[in-house]
Amino acid sequence: xSKIIKILGTGCSxxxxxxxxxxxxxxxxxxxxxxxxxxxxxxxxxYNVLSTPVLVVDEVVVIKGRIPSKNEVIELLK
Length: 78
Description:
The protein has 78 residues and is of the alpha+beta class. 37% of the residues lie in helices and 27% in strands.
């Protein structure tokens, strides 16, 4: 089943780094997923988070305010 992944952030370097890590994990592990970058502050606020970047998997906030390791992302997407 395909995962829906959202990366919430306003375009800062941490947000871009998180996006890169997530996309690399998906490619390297043949994970079926849709990645959406959310930069609209109003939409980000709907997730009730105070710091970015934020990783949302299937509408569940799983990481906020930091860049995850590849291993961490793999575990979250299994």
